[in-house]
């Protein structure tokens, strides 16, 4: 049975029936206390094995990768369940080729969590798609015909998305935006519409794994960052499609002038690492964010380390450590300083303003 609510110092986090949303209910109408008593979501990289060898892989996956097996990951699920986590996002590597994937997802269901999945489409067959009903949402990684994954992986992903949609309702696309494919997002959305998919999530390119060496040449250009919100608006109107942005894109939303109160109403907030989410890598190490190389602890230590662990604290201290230009900004409480992983990669400083933020550049 799905977890319905969790108590917090400020009140409750509620997951209403028949919806994917989480509602933060404050008894006093006060601001949400940070950190939460536990993550609301955990990202689980259950394997480093993947047949695709994409040049921008965040996990540096290999064809003969490693995994710790079902017993380990069921233990991780047990830990997350005791803490009251609502969602687990399963990825890799390529999770669809893991033989015990559906057993793990079913175990998460029995422990009150909704398992969601991201796949490149490798190994997806009609029978696989029928079994995927155990997942809340399945998103297929598609960056477009000129994306970094190559034509073969693109065709594989498109075929998989079509198969999945014929056998289940909630299927979407995860699209990593780069300088190379930004001008062709229309084609990605048109594909989603043609396949009758439910959403497209646009993800920022991040400097992690093999992608780190490509970041300088593939990160969005300043004019592309400036046009993210006008582009999303145009795509939504043209294709009548739900389009989402990940939390690292909030500086682009703020720079477009969308008011903080409106962003909060729609649940748009900046970095959630170490406060609302955590990740567990394929070696069993817990991180505050999937893209931060520094581990906090082993998965079986998460309950005791969550309240005050050092790597978590580093993510949580944006309110006291932020640059003055951020602290004085009307959007700071919503933006949370942007993506700290990108800031550190480009400036060497964890709490520097996100280099993509036009508001910081104007001041």
In the CATH hierarchy, the third-tier topology is known as TIM Barrel
CATH architecture annotation name: Alpha-Beta Barrel
SS class? alpha/beta
Terminal Cα separation, in Å? 50 Å
In helices, the fraction of residues equals: 25-40%
CATH superfamily heading: Aldolase class I
Low-confidence stretches: none
Q: What's the number of helices?
A: 17
The biggest beta sheet is recorded as: 10 strands, mixed
Rg, Å, rounded: 19 Å
What CATH first level would be assigned? Alpha Beta
SSE ordering: EEEEHEHEHEHEHEHHHEHHEEEHHHHHHH
**Overall pLDDT, averaged?**
90
Number of individual domains: 1
Q: What features would you describe in this structure?
A:
This protein has 363 residues and is an alpha/beta fold. It has a single domain, classed as Aldolase class I (TIM Barrel), CATH 3.20.20. Helices cover 35% and strands 16% of the residues. The protein contains 17 helices and 13 strands. The chain has helices at residues 69-83, 101-110, 126-131, 151-167, 185-194, 215-218, 222-226, 228-239, 250-255, 260-265, 302-305, 310-316, 318-321, 324-327, 332-335, 340-347, 358-362; strands at residues 5-8, 11-14, 23-26, 41-45, 87-91, 114-119, 138-141, 171-177, 199-204, 242-245, 277-280, 285-287, 297-298. It has a 10-stranded mixed sheet, with helices on one face. A 3-stranded antiparallel sheet has the order 1-2-3, with no helix packed on it. Strand 2 (11-14) and strand 3 (23-26) form a beta hairpin. Helix 1 packs parallel to helix 2 (101-110). The longest helix has 17 residues, at 151-167.
């Amino acid at each position: 049975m799905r977890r319905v609510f969790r108590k917090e110092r400020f009140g409750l986090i509620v997951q209403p029936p028949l919806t994917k949303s989480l509602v933060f209910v404050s008894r006093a109408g006060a601001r949400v206390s940070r950190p939460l008593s536990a993550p609301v979501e955990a990202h689980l990289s259950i394997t480093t094995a993947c047949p695709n060898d994409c040049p921008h892989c965040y996990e540096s996956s290999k064809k003969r990768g490693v995994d710790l097996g079902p017993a380990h990951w069921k233990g991780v699920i047990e830990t997350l369940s005791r803490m009251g986590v609502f969602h687990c996002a399963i990825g890799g590597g390529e999770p669809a080729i893991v033989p015990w994937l559906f057993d793990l997802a079913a175990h998460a269901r029995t422990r009150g969590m909704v398992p969601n999945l991201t796949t490149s489409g490798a190994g997806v067959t009609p029978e696989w798609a029928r079994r995927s009903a155990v997942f809340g949402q399945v998103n297929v990684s598609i960056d477009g015909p000129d994306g970094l994954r190559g034509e073969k992986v693109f065709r594989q992903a498109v075929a998989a998305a079509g198969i999945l949609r014929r056998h289940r309702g909630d299927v979407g696309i995860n699209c990593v935006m780069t300088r190379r494919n930004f001008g062709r997002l229309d084609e990605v959305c048109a594909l989603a519409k043609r396949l009758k998919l439910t959403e497209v999530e646009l993800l920022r390119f991040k400097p992690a794994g093999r992608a780190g060496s490509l970041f300088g040449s593939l990160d969005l250009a300043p004019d592309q960052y400036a046009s993210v919100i006008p582009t999303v608006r145009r795509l939504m109107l043209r294709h009548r499609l739900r389009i989402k942005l990940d939390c690292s894109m909030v500086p682009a939303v703020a720079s477009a002038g969308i008011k903080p109160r409106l962003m909060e109403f729609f649940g748009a907030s900046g970095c959630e690492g170490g406060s609302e989410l955590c990740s567990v890598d394929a070696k069993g190490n817990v991180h505050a964010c999937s893209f931060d190389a520094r581990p906090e602890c082993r998965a079986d230590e998460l309950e005791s380390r969550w309240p005050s662990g050092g790597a978590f604290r580093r993510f949580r201290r944006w309110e006291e450590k932020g640059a003055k230009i951020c602290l004085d900004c009307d959007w700071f409480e919503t933006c949370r300083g942007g993506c700290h992983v990108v800031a550190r990669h480009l400036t060497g400083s964890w709490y520097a303003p996100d280099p993509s933020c036009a508001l910081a550049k104007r001041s």
